[in-house]
Write a structure and sequence with these properties.
Elements: H1 13-16, H2 23-30, E1 52-53, E2 56-60, E3 64-69, E4 73-75, E5 78-81, E6 87-91, E7 94-97, E8 100-101, H3 102-123, H4 129-141, H5 144-147, E9 156-160, E10 171-176, E11 182-185, E12 188-191, H6 195-205, H7 212-229, E13 245-250, E14 253-256, H8 259-275
Antiparallel strand pairs: 1-4, 1-8, 2-3, 2-12, 3-13, 4-5, 6-7, 7-9, 9-10, 10-11, 13-14
GO cellular component, one term: proteasome complex
Propeptide: 1-53
Subcellular location: Cytoplasm
């Protein structure tokens, strides 16, 4: 990009002309090589060459939505990182969790955050929740080439819908396939290698109208069940004091539970399983 500056030090016209409200579209014009899906890859599968993030769960609650993720990243049969953070705020009222190739997932999540902030600054208004989901779907689609070589990223998106007619149903959850197809989920969902076990746990315990506090406890229990059967999912690590990342999105905005709050919930779940290992 530096080569595009003139001797006066002025920015190129592409930076000053009226443009699109999409930051990824702007980046595709100015520096396409910075987009994850635009980088050339050597032939062959590369899935075992990079750490992978695993299980994320999301639950709709009466006041909004809860999202939680375990902290383990794996590379083949090895634990690549014990304290990776897979759940982040997308903007003031929405959350995004990543599963799949960790490095690309984190980059995609940060690009999505910039995308939403850029839109709001250009348009002077926040995207609708459906619009945010569609923007994320487009970004996932841009990574399809890498996904076909084993470097897939499949996020989970959830948020509080400010335009919802019924505030009790404002917590909404969207899942995606590897081609970028967006799907709205009802009540709860999970992604990643432990998602089968997490969703099985949620299926038995979920009910409409859960409070945020109850949904938070249920999310941590679902991650515990996933870790119990999936080696790539990390359960609460009481020795190292590493606990799931838990966030909420409500009418008051997004919030991450403090380490103290998460520790109390996780330790309560573990204590309960000591008495009843089956849950």
């Amino acid at each position: 990009m530096a080569a595009g500056f003139d001797p006066s030090g002025r920015l190129p016209d592409v930076f000053t002309n009226a443009g699109t409200s999409s930051f990824t579209t702007f980046l595709s014009r100015v520096a396409p090589e910075m987009l994850p899906g635009r980088r050339p890859l050597p032939p062959g599968m590369a899935a075992d060459l990079a750490p992978h993030a695993t299980t994320i769960v999301a639950i709709a609650a009466a006041e909004g939505v809860v999202m939680a993720g375990d902290r383990r990243a794996t590379m083949g049969n090895l634990i690549a990182q014990r304290d990776i953070e897979k759940v982040h705020p997308a903007d003031a009222y929405s959350l995004v969790g990543i599963a799949g190739t960790a490095g690309i997932g984190i980059e995609l999540m940060r690009l999505f955050q910039v995308e939403l902030e850029h839109y709001e600054k250009i348009e002077g208004a926040m995207l609708s929740l459906d619009g945010k989901a569609n923007r994320l779907a487009s970004m996932i689609r841009g990574n399809l080439g890498a996904a076909m070589q084993g470097l897939a990223v499949v996020p989970l998106f959830a948020g509080f819908d400010l335009a919802a007619a019924d505030p009790a149903r404002a917590g909404r959850i969207f899942s995606f396939d590897v081609t970028g197809g967006p799907y709205e989920e009802t009540g709860y969902d999970a992604i990643g290698s432990g998602s089968l076990f997490a969703k099985s746990a949620l299926k038995k315990r979920f009910r409409a109208g859960l409070s945020v506090e109850d949904a938070t406890r249920l999310a941590v229990e679902a991650l515990y069940d996933a870790a119990d059967d999936d080696t790539a999912t990390g359960g609460p690590d009481l020795t190292r004091r590493i606990y799931p990342v838990v966030m909420t999105a409500t009418a008051e905005g997004t919030r991450r539970l403090t380490d103290t709050e998460t520790a109390a919930i996780a330790e309560g779940v573990v204590a309960g399983r000591m008495e009843n290992p089956g849950g």
